[in-house]
């Protein structure tokens, strides 16, 4: 049987799904120059397979223009076609960036931070997922035997990532049955998001080759443990020197990093509309479940909305380079480019306003603090539902301004269409549907 290798030009849409269009790989040199056509209303596909109200309707055309640095070619050598895809910017037909392209949004946000402050954001996404072929048993959490029992998946997956040029930091069996986690080193904002997309897609590709599946959904059962995406970030100058750490300041947080964190804290309820954007997100974001449900900055606290992460060793230069923060109210039902773009712009808003650093919690639990104590430290309960997160966005004109008007309109319409479908579902049905999608 004859085969003609296929390459896909792809992008990640508003619901965190990778979609695209393919062509014979023999055309790659041409397509890298000319791109490939796409339809604006395709941006309105919801996670649940419907189309939200579109400002474009049946009109218009845009183009995928591939980022040559994102090309992936992984041959599993098992008789199945190789994974061949590129991640793309979306352009207007005249070659200018489309105002609704998530990658262009992040690029513009990073450029603003650099132009106004001389700073660069480095980030990485920790991913947790459930593997259906785990052969899990009671007590498998973090166990050597859990790695053994999931067979060839781990090594095959890491091999695929290596072939794709992704450096893996750690891989482990997580707490829940069949749950695993993969981490990668920090990169600049765009590369961090590109890597996040590739990490997810090659997990799916590897599981498929082994006759199983993976799900990155925040919950696969209402009473189970959740899978999150923990977004680590730090600030650096243009010479590659870290600027988040200052040992003379409380908790080691430099002045500029404190301003950046305060901007995030101030707008965190609205940010959740982008970082934890689906009904299933809020089955995971519940109190005392090692998830971030408050807008607090916590010292090494895995229940803080923003965690000050640990450093290892005593060498001042090493400590400064390790020092970073972790945004925990996030999951893989979101688009990582949107997640990081709004976090970055919220932080930049804090720098512009010269906000004072937040007062971190160390041993305190915001749940047991008095309302007055929380208010004094600007600690707010984050939204408890997707509807509440969207309402917080619609009540925060600053965060609304983080997106071009048409992209904001499209995003809200997309989410409203998705929520309308799922509003009457039971938690079990929500989990089932989103586990399948993600």
Structural notes for this entry:
- With 438 residues, the chain is α+β, with helices and mostly antiparallel strands.
- The chain has 2 domains: 79 residues, Glutamine synthetase, N-terminal domain (Ubiquitin-like (UB roll)), CATH 3.10.20.70; 334 residues, Glutamine synthetase/guanido kinase, catalytic domain (Creatine Kinase, Chain A, domain 2, 2-Layer Sandwich), CATH 3.30.590.
- Helix content is 36%, strand content 18%.
- The protein is built from 14 helices and 15 strands.
- Strands 7, 8, 9, 10, 11, 12, 13, 14 and 15 form a 9-stranded mixed beta sheet that branches. Strands 1, 2, 3, 4, 5 and 6 form a 6-stranded mixed beta sheet that branches.
- Strand 1 and strand 2 form a beta hairpin.
- Helix 4 crosses helix 5, helix 6 runs antiparallel to helix 9 and helix 6 packs across helix 11.
- The longest helix has 21 residues.
- The two termini are 33 Å apart.
- The model has no long low-confidence stretch (mean pLDDT 94).
